[in-house]
Design brief:
This protein is an alpha+beta fold. It contains 21 helices and 11 strands. The relative contact order is 0.14. It is a single-pass membrane protein.
Length: 516
């Protein structure tokens, strides 16, 4: 055999052998090494299974949990996160599981949660997004790191705090009034409020942050919701990277098309602002969130300039978060008030005492103590997020554990909110009086026992905006209606991006106006 022929045979064989070694290292040796390392420190968990990790088990548990009917109770964790509930009971408060080949340390002890989220040494960066989540969120505030994050956070802080928040109040009130005008046709009838609040919150974030209306942003919301559905069904599906590069599934193709269409819609909004300035119709791009982004996009200083891609991703993040967060919070709060008429009446008396029959005003919203207690208890029972994911950027110690680099941390911050050791045996009951003396006293000064908006430097920038919008909407509803639960309601909370009612929330409205 000639030397050339040997080379022709040897090179492909060598490449194949190298690829095989790397594959076995990534998919077998490294997972087993990490598993052994954490087992030696007392961290157990379901065993790693070749290629798939624990994804098949998780998918099966979730399917089984959702297939069973649920009574009207607030112990929702075994339903929305059945795998975490099962494995915490089996392996302890902190355990190791596997998202495919990726090690994922699930932590639910408040002290460890606090240590990770408040870490100032940047040892726990955000995990690199999956393909579908990158199409949904991109490089928005929720995902970027370092100087980019600091710059975006300043923009968000300016847009959603202080005087800017106060200036948003008229737009929020106008949006709620539009919704309530429609509700006049449903007095004495059943109405599905989750959908109603979806339209309301979409209108509010469109008006306050982007200077438009829901109808103008309707296409963006529709496409974002489709992307969220695709991203949600991709969770716990095992993907081998090189296969995705060779062959694109229908979900990948659809998500790419949706992301491109969203970019086109946002660019039209940007051009509108630019044209107004060029034509002399406005002397600036505006003081709302979109205006601040467009101004940064045109900044001549490279340090402060925002790229077009970053601008689009920031818009996607705030469209999604601004709508989804308050939508769920309002819907679950109304459900709980419909069930607990005594607390509904207490909240109504407080609203009438502070505002009378007038619309809420910013200076007095802070006086709504009972409503704040109700909102906090709703957030405790029906949290805004399923968990927070971080990556271990380098070998680091938390508590008594030494963690290797390049594994994931799943911070199950919902677990402490349903922990009887922290809240008592009535943990699954709706009892707003827990928060009568504030969050710190309710949690016994344990910050990680209740952190629906996160804690530490990366806590939610829109927290004040979300709670203000919720208080305004609830106040205006309670001034006009009593709410009772419809017999048609089926209790079925599910996990999408946050906790949502699978079949909506149906209530009956009764007007407080005797002339209606």
């Amino acid at each position: 055999m000639s030397g050339l022929m040997k080379l022709v045979i040897l090179v492909p064989c060598s490449l194949f052998f190298a690829a095989l070694v790397k594959f076995l290292y990534d998919y077998l040796w490294r997972p087993l090494r990490i598993q052994q390392m954490l087992n030696s420190q007392g961290i157990r968990g379901p065993p790693y299974r070749f290629i798939h990790g624990n994804n098949k088990e998780v998918a099966k548990m979730r399917q089984e949990a959702l297939s069973k009917p649920m009574a009207l109770r607030h112990d929702i964790f075994p339903r929305v996160q059945p795998h975490i509930d099962t494995w915490i009971n089996e392996y302890g408060r902190n355990y190791l599981s596997w998202d495919g080949v990726r090690a994922e340390l699930v932590i639910s002890e408040p002290d460890l949660i606090k240590e990770v989220l408040k870490n100032s040494e940047k040892a726990f960066p955000k995990r690199k997004l999956t393909l579908f989540l990158s199409k949904l969120l991109g490089n928005g505030l929720a995902t970027v790191e370092g100087e980019k994050w600091e710059k975006r956070r300043k923009l968000g802080n300016y847009a959603f705090h202080g005087e800017s928040l106060k200036n948003m109040t008229p737009a929020i009130i106008a949006s709620v009034e539009t919704m309530l005008e429609k509700w006049k046709g449903y007095v004495g009838k059943e109405i599905e409020v989750f959908e109603e609040f979806r339209l309301l919150t979409s209108e509010v974030i469109s008006r306050t942050a982007f200077g438009s209306t829901y109808l103008e942003g309707q296409k963006i919301f529709y496409m974002l919701s489709k992307l969220a559905i695709i991203a949600n069904r991709s969770f716990f599906k095992t993907r081998i990277p090189w296969i995705s590069k060779l062959w694109k599934s229908a979900d990948i193709l659809e998500s790419e098309e949706l992301a491109n269409e969203i970019q086109g819609c946002v660019m039209k909004m940007i051009k509108k602002r630019e044209d107004r300035v060029v034509n002399g119709e406005a002397d600036s791009f505006g003081n709302d969130f979109l205006g601040l982004l467009v101004k940064a996009y045109h900044d001549l200083d490279d340090k402060d300039m925002l790229s077009l891609g970053d601008l689009v991703d920031e818009c996607k993040t705030f469209y999604l978060a601004g709508q989804d967060t308050v939508n769920g919070l309002l819907a679950w709060t109304v459900l709980l008030l419909a069930i607990h008429g005594d607390w509904q009446e207490k909240a109504r008396r407080e609203v009438i005492e502070i505002f009378g029959n007038q619309n809420p005003h910013p200076e007095s919203i802070v006086k709504l103590k009972i409503m704040t207690m109700i909102i906090n208890e709703t957030l405790r029972l029906y949290g805004l997020q399923n968990g927070i994911i971080r990556e271990v950027g380098r070998e680091v110690q938390i508590g008594n554990l030494v963690l290797p680099a390049n594994i994931d941390l799943y911070i199950a911050n919902v677990v402490p909110q349903h922990d009887p050791q922290l809240w008592g045996d009535d943990v699954h009951l709706f009892k707003p009086e827990r928060f009568a003396e504030g969050i710190a006293k309710a949690t016994n000064y344990n910050a990680a026992a209740f952190c629906p908006f996160g804690i530490g430097p990366r806590s939610c920038v829109g927290m004040s905006f979300a709670t203000m919008e919720t208080k305004i909407a609830l106040s205006m509803i309670l001034q006009r209606y009593t709410i009772s639960l419809s017999p048609a309601y089926v209790h079925s909370p599910i996990s999408v991006l946050g906790i949502q009612p699978e079949h909506g929330i149906q209530v009956i409205l009764k007007s407080l106006d005797s002339n209606v």
